[in-house]
Each structure stands twice: as structure tokens, then as C-alpha cells.
Design brief:
By secondary structure, the chain is an alpha/beta fold. It folds into two domains: about 10-115 and about 160-200, 3-Layer(aba) Sandwich (Rossmann fold); about 210-325, Rossmann fold (3-Layer(aba) Sandwich), CATH 3.40.50. The protein contains twelve helices and eight strands. It has helices at about 10-20, 25, 30-35, 50-60, 80-90, 100-110, 165-180, 185-210, 225-230, 250-265, 280-285, 310-325, and strands at about 40-45, 60-65, 90-95, 115, 220, 235-240, 270, 290-295. The strands form two sheets. The protein has a four-stranded parallel sheet, sandwiched between helices. Strands 6-5-7-8 form a four-stranded parallel sheet, with helices on both faces. Strand 7, helix 11 (about 280-285) and strand 8 (about 290-295) form a beta-alpha-beta unit.
């Protein structure tokens, strides 16, 4: 996440022209072409949380490919010529505007007939950068650190999928778009969506019940990705490095977090699987804290504590309950 490389409009236009001119030549190895030939809706998803929605809602009626490979940090994504061609040929594109600038630019120039921006299907918020006060030590005031700037000039936090309630809102919007694009199978999309939203509602209830009675409400993360989750369940997120999990925090910030750990009864510094745990472990050692994984679910890999969204979120809940001293 240190550098967000954006494909220029000229590059995208050139790739688009190449793709249209060589459409037949590329069709033999394209997942989009395969989807069309099988009669399924061809969906290109920008990264894992979007792919999960497309697969769960679309079921057997969709053919889903993703622009971000497992283990690839999504914010830094660069699009290949073939990926830009796939975006031109897709029946539908499902993406989250503001998270991946290269994808946003490519989608804006794609001629796909259905473009689904997940960010437009729920309400995005700004999560402030200032640390919370300690006037109610351990009470978990509603301030969240480190999201400003994540979504470009708007400063809106795009990590909405980590709130099961907002993720469910997005799911219903995606379902409506699929039904409009493929009305012959609308009932199937509706049925699949009902099953998915039921699972998300159950997951949210588990988080609410599991985090209701804890010794502390404050948790430390390497990456400020959990603002929506914290807000939903009455917690306070404090991030070491804010927006960029690979940046080096200042010595003053590290000292500040050590003081907060003592004041708020923090026991654990969370890190994630796609970036280095070095800074988290340094803070943990200096402040005599434990470390554990809190997965922002930007991709599923062999290191993930679960094979899909629900399973990894359940692992996140377990880790939070342990760290916060759930009773």
C-alpha cells in the first residue's frame, strides 16, 4: 500500500482499443467468453469481498473472475492489458469505488452494460484520525483513527464489508442489479440473496452478543481498516500506521500507544496476513502486549483463518473476544 499506481487514461484507452481489435483472438482463453458461451452472466469482481458477493448471489447463474489475485494487496493493483480487455467484455463489473484507483479508471472507460459500485449501495463515512481521549478510561469512546485519505480526496472509509450489516445492504443492491441484468433468473438471485443476508444477520448477532460484555472496548490494529466494525459494535479502533500498514509510525505515536495500552487495558496488537507484522511486534514487545491476527479480508490465502468471508469473520470475532476480555 505504499504506492497506489493508477493506469493513465491513455494506457486504458490503448488497452481498450487493443482488446476490441483482438476480441476474437482472446476469446479462447477468456473467462468472460466462457461465461457468455455457457449462458451465464459474466461478472468481473474487483477483489475478494466483491467476488464473494457475486458468487453467493449469482450461484450457478454467473461466471465470476477477479482482478485481484489471492495474496495480492488490492490497493496497489495494476491492471494488465488482458484484465482491461476482460472489463470491456464483461456482462457486469462489481467493484468498490475509492479502494482501487486503477480499477476506478478502467471501469469508467469500460463499455460493460452493468457497472455495480458497491460504495453507492450503502452509506460511507469518514473516520477521524485523532486518538480518543481517556476521560472515561476503558469505556471505548466513539473515535476511530486513521481512515482519512483512504478513499482519495473524499476521505471516506471504503472498508464497509467488515460491517456485516453494511455488507448485507450491499448484497441486496448487487442482487437487484443482477436481477435487472438477467431478469429470467431473478427468482434464483432473490433466493440466494435471502440465504446470504440471513447468514450475515446471524454473524452480526454473534458479534453483538460476543462483544457486549468485555473488559475493554479498545483494540490496536496495524491497519486502520476496522472503523465500521468498531462503530457497529461499540468498540474503539486505534491504528499504528493509519492508512498505510507498511509505513513507519513516529516514535511519538509508538509512545502514545504504549500509554493508551496501560490506560485502556489493551492486551493485544493485531496485525494482518498481507503485510509485515514487524511494527506490530515491536509495539507489542515495548508495551508488553500479545500479538494476534485480525483479518481485513482483502483476500483469502492459505494463511487465512478460514476459507471464506463468514469463516474468517468468525475467527476475527474469536480473536477480538480474547483480546478484549469478553465475559
Amino acid at each position: 500500500m505504499n504506492v497506489r499506481r493508477v493506469i493513465s487514461g491513455i494506457s486504458i484507452a490503448a488497452a481498450t482499443a487493443l482488446g476490441l481489435g483482438a476480441l476474437s483472438a482472446c476469446s479462447s482463453d477468456s473467462s468472460a467468453a466462457d461465461g457468455n458461451s455457457s449462458g451465464r452472466l459474466d461478472v468481473v469482481a474487483s477483489f475478494y469481498p466483491m467476488r464473494y458477493l457475486a458468487e453467493q448471489i449469482g450461484g450457478d447463474r454467473v461466471s465470476v473472475s477477479t482482478l485481484t489475485e489471492p495474496g495480492q494487496e488490492p490497493h496497489d493493483l495494476e491492471l494488465s492489458v488482458k484484465q482491461t480487455i476482460d472489463l470491456q467484455k464483461a456482462d457486469a463489473i462489481l467493484y468498490l469505488k475509492g479502494l482501487q484507483p486503477a480499477v476506478d479508471d478502467a471501469v469508467s472507460q469500460s463499455e460493460a452494460r452493468t457497472k455495480i459500485d458497491a460504495a453507492a449501495l450503502t452509506t460511507l463515512e469518514k473516520h477521524g484520525t485523532t486518538a480518543h481521549s481517556h476521560e472515561g478510561e476503558g469505556e471505548g469512546e466513539e473515535a476511530h483513527s486513521g481512515e482519512s485519505g483512504e478513499s482519495g480526496e473524499s476521505g471516506l472509509d471504503p472498508h464497509v464489508w467488515l460491517d456485516p450489516v453494511k455488507y448485507g445492504e450491499i448484497a441486496r443492491g448487487v442482487s437487484a442489479a443482477f436481477q435487472k441484468a438477467d431478469p429470467a433468473h431473478a427468482a434464483e438471485y432473490e433466493k440466494n440473496t435471502a440465504a446470504l443476508t440471513a447468514k450475515l444477520t446471524s454473524l452480526s448477532t454473534s458479534f453483538e452478543d460476543g462483544l457486549k460484555n468485555t473488559a475493554t472496548k479498545v483494540f490496536f490494529t496495524n491497519h486502520a481498516a476496522f472503523g465500521y466494525l468498531a462503530e457497529r459494535y461499540g468498540l474503539t479502533q486505534e491504528a499504528i500506521a493509519g492508512v498505510d500498514p507498511e509505513s513507519e509510525p513516529s516514535p511519538a505515536r509508538m509512545k502514545e500507544l504504549q500509554r493508551e495500552a496501560r490506560a485502556d487495558g489493551v492486551t493485544t496488537v493485531f496485525y494482518e496476513t498481507l503485510v509485515s507484522d514487524k511494527t506490530a511486534k515491536t509495539l507489542a514487545e515495548d508495551a508488553n502486549l500479545r500479538t494476534d491476527v485480525l483479518d481485513p479480508l482483502e483476500g483469502i490465502t492459505e494463511k487465512s483463518r478460514g476459507t471464506d468471508y463468514i469463516a474468517v469473520m468468525e475467527s476475527n470475532l474469536k480473536a477480538l473476544r480474547t483480546a478484549l476480555g469478553a465475559k
